[in-house]
Design brief:
Elements: E1 2-12, E2 18-22, E3 27-37, E4 48-61, E5 65-72, E6 75-83, E7 93-101, E8 106-115, E9 122-139
Antiparallel strand pairs: 1-9, 2-9, 3-8, 4-7, 4-9, 5-6, 5-8
Protein name: Exosporium leader peptide
Organism: Paenibacillus borealis
Length: about 140
């Protein structure tokens, strides 16, 4: 039977918009969380970490595309290219991500961020809430 080994979550609900300036080829972390995969727990050896994130974008100034990334210990393990069309209207765009990671034992730190995939600087405005969770699951039945 599968069991939950560890759970970590963070939420950010700014009291207004947060403007991000992202240089070319760089990423900016928005939220981080961690899970603990203890070696003394037999369920840890067949673990999977389910990562879920949600970001609300209010405005993006040209260019209108970027990547949403998830990093483990500073290394990108998930990257999804996002292209928003019609961001000039006051409509907020919600972006959701889901990734499953086979994590090593120990304390594992994850970060949800935005990466600039353009040759020039990207300007993005995010609004709350932003949510990022990590659930470590292990034991029998975990594939």
């Amino acid at each position: 039977m599968a069991t939950i080994i560890s759970y970590g979550s963070k939420a950010l609900n700014p009291l207004g918009a947060v403007a991000l300036t992202i240089p070319p080829g760089q990423n900016i972390g928005i939220l981080d969380t961690s899970v603990v995969i203890p070696p003394e727990n037999p369920a840890s050896f067949s673990n999977r970490v389910e990562l879920k994130g949600s970001i609300n974008i209010d405005q993006i100034v040209t260019p209108d595309n970027f990547n949403v990334v998830i990093l483990r210990a500073g290394t990108v393990i998930y990257r999804s290219h996002i292209r928003l069309v019609g961001t000039a209207n006051p409509e907020i765009k919600q972006i959701n991500v889901l990734w499953v990671d086979g994590a090593p034992l120990g304390v594992i730190n994850y970060q949800l961020g935005i990466e600039n995939s353009n040759p020039g600087t990207t300007f993005i405005t995010i609004v709350g809430p932003v949510v990022f969770t990590a659930t470590a699951i292990g034991g029998d039945g975990v594939i």
